[in-house]
């Protein structure tokens, strides 16, 4: 398994992508390919389950999946690195999950520390959009350029890297990122409290059959946000657009296809379709965890 900077770590590398209903875990081989998979329900299966019980059930399932993927029982002594991607922001200092709307039992808890204590693995916790961005960046080989990944999944996410380094993006508290707002001309109120967010024009509650109902304003908001991102990234940059809705929403898929077909435009990043599909989360979590563990070891 290669870290983003091209170094490689010995031992077992596992990526985990915690989705709103299913958690997917995979052992990733030295070439970055998936060697084995496990999946289990991530949700609490009933609103009445107390957060402590839901968290404990989730942790024991995750520990079980990691042990199976590592091949415990056969005298496993290899070192193990686990990257865990969660659908919400993570406090980089404390390792606490700040806000997972769909999995609230994770909020303010530190699943990474729990997994490390129970499995002996080195664990790195990250946001799902950050993990997916890493995987897409590695897939197109854009390691040295300005790279952005816009993802239409449960919600709309964006992450940016300057080569291997994540770029800090502005946001007002827990509202949507500033770069995901379409501009002053766009005034539709968003659930986050701001107005003009792309999310307000393309909410994740939209059903697939509604995709034919793109208004001129929906298209304009999408075009405005994408153009601003391309200008931010500059002429040497790449903007990769993906996520489940980028395939499932026909109008969105057509629009991305059109942008990708444009090729190079002076002064703005080119657009490419995402390549990793549903595996982006597990692959990116594994790759990012390797990079972080490598840097940790280099410092100590
Ligand atoms: Zn918003």
Could you explain how this protein is built, in words?
The protein folds into two domains: 12-130 and 279-299, Nucleotidyltransferase, domain 5 (2-Layer Sandwich); 142-275, Nucleotidyltransferase, domain 5. 34% of the residues lie in helices and 21% in strands. It has helices at 51-70, 111-119, 128-140, 198-201, 216-233, 245-248, 250-262, 280-299; strands spanning 12-18, 22-28, 34-41, 80-86, 122-127, 146-153, 155-162, 165-166, 238-242, 270-273. Helix 1 (51-70) crosses helix 2. The structure holds zinc ion. Residues 175-176, 190, 192, 194, 197, 199 line the site of zinc ion (ZN).
Question: Could you write a compact summary of the structure shown?
Answer:
The chain is an alpha/beta fold.
Notable traits:
300 residues; alpha/beta; Nucleotidyltransferase, domain 5; 2 domains; 10 strands; binds zinc ion
Blueprint (SSEs and pairs):
Elements: E1 12-18, E2 22-28, E3 34-41, H1 51-70, E4 80-86, H2 111-119, E5 122-127, H3 128-140, E6 146-153, E7 155-162, E8 165-166, H4 198-201, H5 216-233, E9 238-242, H6 245-248, H7 250-262, E10 270-273, H8 280-299
Helix pairs in contact: 1-2, 3-8
Bound molecules: zinc ion (ZN).
Extract low-pLDDT stretches. Answer: none
Write the H/E string, N to C: EEEHEHEHEEEHHEHHEH
CATH superfamily of the largest domain: ATPase, nucleotide binding domain
Shape: globular
